[in-house]
Amino acid sequence: MKNRKEALQAALSCLDETSLLDLTRKLIAIPSHHGLENPEREMAAYLERFLVEAGLTVCRRLTAGGRFNVIATLGKNRSPEKTLMLNGHMDTVGVENMKGDPFSGEIVDGKIFGRGSVDMKAALASMIHAVLAVKEAGIPLEGQVVFAGVADEELWNAGTRDLVARGPRTKYAIVGEPTGLRIDHGHRALEWIEIVIRGRAAHGGTPERGVNAIEKAGKLLRILCDELLPAINERTHPITGPSTLNLGQIFGGTQPSTVAGECVIRLDRRWIPGESTESVLDELREIIRRLREDDPDYDGDVRNMRDMAMNTVGQPPLLTAPDSPLVRRLSEALSRFGPSPRLGAFPGWTDGGILSSAGGIETVVFGPGDLSVAHSDREFCPVDEVIRSCPVYISTLLDLCL
Of the candidates 170, 190, 180, which has an alpha carbon nearest to the alpha carbon of residue 362? Predict the structure, then answer.
């Protein structure tokens, strides 16, 4: 090809929108939800066959979590500065709450329905077809594009942690979570935290002989709501947005007629640069210490719910400058194909945090669909966004890897 413009036109001429939607529907039809023994097994096997038949170099690799990643590559890989990863997870949340067939992939009123449609099988299909369009156009990439279909994003991120540990590494990465075709160049870190308050069980008729863990937990909750939450709400960052704490679960006791011997509180804590896993845990431990000073019967522990020995990477923040090369190239692609470029912060957490903070890869989140319908009882992805995302992936791929 003489130039990028010619290469782009050649690749776009090879993009088959019908095949793109067919692949999206096929991926939705393959169950890969949590609750299965190995959620991604069938889907990984299917993608391996599909990508091999398409002529890509493909590896289906077992991760440390005992589940499979599918990695496909295209390009000469002569320059590490011209490498891009298109990253998407193959697993989904469960299907118990869904209305209708969760694997139908039916298209109604311009929407494609089914579990994983927006989170994130439509993006997987679009990314794959972007790579295939470049291959079918015969465009020789000086660098390399890596498609990574990864495992276990919905829980502990074994798939992308494995990529960071064993490669392949790239200069740039796009994670295809649903952003409504907005470029999200940052998000907060995430920790799930469990606080266990211990009391002493006793018969409900003689409560003075026990120590009620639920009552003790109430003291903690008051401090969390009255002191810690207001302090956390004042913390913010120009890329990630504000720090947050959510009281997600509380349970304790065994029955009404027994003094509760234990109460458990579970928190979702989204932290920002300037904070850390250690500082987040320490400020909760400090509250327990204060309560223990005032009450000798107070007994509680704070722990991180992830296995910090097995998962040392954690779930760190994503931080990419708004004027970075990747953001600029994506913005230029959106200017060509629409909608108008918009930048933001992703409200949830993604594997982009691992690629960015642990992998040192310039990363953004960009994909079709609305995050608010992910995990819902009627999950869907707009067909027009699936179709519009693919030329944007193609254009960005060529700008970065040619």
Answer: 170
Contact 183, 327 (CB under 8 A): yes
372 near 114, Cβ under 8 Å? no
- Please identify which residue in the block is written with the tokens 């990864």: 150
Euclidean distance between CA atoms 73 and 66, whole angstroms:
23
d(CA 215, CA 212): 5
Q: H or E element: which one contains 236?
A: strand 236-237
Spatial separation of the C-alpha atoms in residues 323 and 283, rounded to whole Å: 34
Distance, in Å, from the CA atom of 379 to the CA atom of 122, rounded to the nearest integer, reads: 12
Length of the chain: 402
Instruction: Give the pLDDT of the chain (402 residues) as one tens digit per residue.
Output: 558 999 999 999 999 999 999 999 999 999 999 999 999 999 999 999 999 999 999 999 999 778 999 999 999 999 999 999 999 999 999 999 999 999 999 999 999 999 999 999 999 999 999 999 999 999 999 999 999 999 999 998 999 999 999 999 999 999 999 999 999 999 999 999 999 999 999 999 999 999 999 999 999 999 999 999 999 999 999 999 999 999 999 999 999 999 999 999 999 999 999 999 999 999 999 999 999 999 999 999 999 998 887 788 889 999 999 999 999 999 999 999 988 999 999 999 999 999 999 999 999 999 999 999 999 999 999 999 999 999 999 999 999 999
Q: Is 81 left (phi over 0), alpha (psi -120 to 50) or beta?
A: alpha
Rounded-to-integer distance, Cα 281 and Cα 278, Å: 5
Strand partners, 262: 198
Q: What is the DSSP string of 244-311?
A: EEEEEEEEE-S-TTB--SEEEEEEEEEE-BTB-HHHHHHHHHHHHHHHHHH-TT--EEEEESS-TTT-
Closest C-alpha among 238, 188, 192 to residue 346:
188
CA distances from 4 to 84, 134, 141 (A): 16, 12, 11
- Dig out the tokens for 222 from the structure: 């008051």
Fill in the DSSP letter of residue 328: H
